[in-house]
Design brief:
The structure holds two protein chains of two kinds. By secondary structure, chain A is mostly helical. Chain A has a domain at 2-26 and 63-183. Chain A has nine helices and no strands. By secondary structure, chain B is of the alpha/beta class. Chain B has three domains: 2-136, Orthogonal Bundle (Fumarate Reductase Iron-sulfur Protein, Chain B, domain 2); 145-304, 3-Layer(aba) Sandwich (Rossmann fold); 309-432, AF0625-like (Rossmann fold). Chain B is 53% helix and 7% strand. A four-stranded parallel sheet of chain B has the order 2-1-3-4. A four-stranded parallel sheet of chain B has the order 7-6-8-9, sandwiched between helices. Chain B has a two-stranded antiparallel sheet with strand order 5-10. In chain B, α8 packs across α10 and α18 crosses α19 (336-344). Classes of the chains: A mainly alpha, B alpha/beta. Chains A and B meet through α1, α3, α4, α6 and α7 of A and α2, α3, α5, α7 and α9 of B.
Chain lengths: 214, 438
């Protein structure tokens, strides 16, 4: 049974990966945006910024103003990646040392707390709740469930079949709802960096005086 | 609005068709990306001045994403309620008009603050374009576009009136510089620069035209106005109507070609710069074989090349700078205006935040033309008014006439007690003109 589920995880991962790739490919069914204007800056530098320094909380006022939420988001995603890493260590399988095991446990545990925190925030903040749809809540709960099962599995393996089953559901659900942003995030950031990069807006030139007195 | 009451399912379908036509791979990717985290809310001056949900950038984007999902994604078609997809009907059209036209200046501040990096203003503009197709652009904005298409400029200034204005300003310039040969050339073939203006300058702010004339005079520049196509503005950018926007931009290209100029020089106009420098080549599907620059870049070059001399002591008051969103955040012209001001005034103070992180003044996005949203526009400018007060500045300089108009209203409403000037006016006042020997 466990072996079947293990193959199920691999297959659902491959299936989802293909579907996500096809979704990205499908965006090209719409017009391809061509750029005729002469660049003023460097699109590539913009992309590097968007995927690097531009993600730092101090680069965005929205992150500075909502630091707990921003950090919760960061740690939530670290927890998810740690849990996925752990899942694949079971599926493929491969081994890691006790230090990495500890880091994985801490990351997943923190991720669970942050995930629940974000769920509570979405439920309680009227404006966020109003722009949310059932998928927003379901996606969060599904991921939280996966994280909890992964954490339990790091201590005791008797729920492994449930972990695999939930992982299959999660992986298959990714293209359906908002979790697809795991793929589109990079696409969006690249487009963002290219846009502001070629216009010479980002990255900001070093040495700019950002202070009050010029 | 009577037009909304008459909207038919056919109209909705027509708008949807245009929406689909205008959507491109980039915007589609963005529409897949929003996670509705709401972190963008505080980046919007509308939301900051009045925290209504409808002013949240995520809410505005979601209005569009709902339609995108419903008609262009499998899950949206099959599981509408679950993924928040919604039919494009009259009620949603009303919401689109109120939020996408009435609560957004397309300033792009939300985009910069979006965790995903979604280009929200450009998606909103695409949706505006769909509404434009079925005649649902708010009347003031649409009539500005129509006037420009019909008469060649957004104020409907006739060629005769334009020529009279130039003649009058030329006389003023000759008096000011004490040189009867000082010229404001029109239709001068082979001039290096074709200079455009915002028609509001001709109607209400002629001093900013004289200021540029004086600067060109001081450098002995080879330049000209066009008697036909002199309007730098392009409200097609705001209505979302690519065809109309393309027609307006093509006129300027035609004049550059007819007059055999080397460069198109854009007046101090934020959206005019974004339109003609960045967007027009995309609207027209062509690369330009001539240079498109802002007058600010030209003035900056003059200072660097010592072609003009400035006496900053002419400006003793505390001066601050407002960064027009279309010129700075969306246009990439960030440091030149600062460089000029540091040479032209004695006491320059930055607003906080500034440059690409600046707050919109509230005058962009076609808001000044949409009187029905005027109250909201003035309220949204509170953030900017507070910023100005914090600097303690007596003069606000901004290289954009939409911003100037908004600042004039903010000045009155929030009792700021400031003078509002363009970069050219500041430079012209500080200009040291050596006597010309004939």
């Amino acid at each position: 049974m466990l072996d079947i589920l293990r193959y199920g995880v691999i297959l659902s991962f491959c299936f989802t990966f293909i579907i996500l790739c096809s979704m990205v490919f499908k965006t090209y069914h719409f017009n391809k945006k061509k750029t005729y204007s002469l660049p003023q800056g460097n699109g590539l530098k913009g992309i590097i910024y968007a995927l690097g320094r531009g993600l730092a909380p101090w680069e965005k006022e929205s992150a500075v103003k909502h630091l707990p939420t921003y950090l919760a988001g960061i740690f939530y995603h670290i927890g998810i990646f740690a849990a996925l890493y752990y899942l694949f260590s079971l599926v493929i399988p491969f081994h890691f040392g006790t230090l990495i095991a500890m880091i994985i446990r801490i990351s997943i545990f923190t991720g669970i707390l942050c995930g629940i925190g974000l769920f509570v925030k979405r439920s309680l903040k009227p404006h966020i709740r109003r722009i949310s749809c059932p998928d927003d809540f379901a996606s969060n709960l599904l991921v939280d469930g996966f994280l909890i099962l992964a954490l339990i599995d790091t201590y005791r393996g008797d729920l492994r079949a449930v972990l695999f089953a939930v992982a299959i559901i999660l992986l298959l659900y990714i293209p359906v709802g908002k979790i697809r942003h795991c793929f589109f995030f990079f696409y969006s950031r690249i487009l963002f960096g290219f846009f502001f990069g070629r216009r010479g807006v980002l990255p900001q030139k070093l040495g700019d005086s950002r202070s009050n007195h010029g | 609005m009577a037009k909304i009451a008459k909207i038919t399912p056919d109209d909705c379908q027509k708008a949807l068709d245009i929406f689909k036509k205008r959507l491109n791979s980039d915007y589609t990717a963005f529409l897949h990306s929003c996670v509705r985290c709401g972190l963008c809310a505080d980046s919007c001056h509308y939301y900051l001045s009045n925290p209504e949900m409808e002013s949240m950038p995520a809410y505005k984007l979601n209005l569009i994403a709902k339609v995108f999902k419903k008609y262009f994604t499998l899950t949206g078609k099959k599981m509408s309620r679950w993924v928040g997809a919604e039919k494009f009907d009259r009620q949603l059209v009303e919401e689109w008009i109120d939020s996408l036209f009435g609560r957004c200046t397309l300033c792009g501040r939300c985009s910069l603050n979006c965790t995903m990096g979604i280009n929200i203003p450009y998606i909103i503009r695409t949706a505006r374009g769909a509404l434009a197709e079925v005649g649902l652009v708010p009347p003031g904005l649409q009539s500005t576009v129509d006037t420009a298409l019909k008469t060649g400029n957004n104020m409907g200034i006739s060629k005769e009136d334009w020529m009279e204005t130039v003649e009058w300003l030329e006389g003023e310039l000759q008096q000011e510089v004490g040189d009867p040969n000082a010229k404001l050339p029109v239709d001068k073939k082979g001039a290096k620069y074709l200079y455009t203006i915002n028609p509001r300058e001709a109607m209400f702010f002629p001093l900013s035209i004289s200021a540029v004339g004086k600067i060109f005079y001081a450098t002995n520049e080879s330049w000209t106005f066009s008697s036909d196509n002199f309007d730098v503005t392009n409200y097609g950018l705001y209505s979302g109507d690519d065809e109309a926007a393309g027609i307006m931009s093509r006129r300027l290209i035609n004049s550059v070609k007819e007059l055999e100029c080397q460069s198109l020089i854009l007046a101090e106009c934020g959206h005019g710069f974004n339109s003609n420098r960045w967007e027009a080549p995309e609207w027209l599907n062509r690369k330009y074989d001539f240079e498109v620059k802002s007058i600010i870049q030209v003035i900056g070059d003059y200072i660097r090349g010592s072609r003009i001399q400035l006496d900053p002591s002419m400006h003793q008051k505390v001066v601050t700078l407002h960064d027009p969103c279309n010129l700075v955040r969306l246009g990439g012209l960030i440091e030149e205006q600062r460089y000029i001001l540091k040479h032209a005034v004695t006491h320059f103070v930055e607003m906080t935040p500034n440059r690409e992180k600046n707050y919109c003044c509230g005058g962009g996005g076609g808001q000044l033309a949409m009187t029905r949203f005027a109250e909201r526009r003035i309220a949204s400018g509170k953030i900017k008014a507070d910023q100005v007060i914090q600097t303690g500045a007596e003069v606000v300089v901004t290289p954009c006439h939409n911003c100037i108009d908004q600042f004039m209203e903010l000045n009155k409403h929030y009792k700021l007690g400031i003078e509002i000037k363009t970069i050219s006016e500041i430079v012209a006042d500080a200009l040291v003109i050596p006597k010309k020997t004939v």
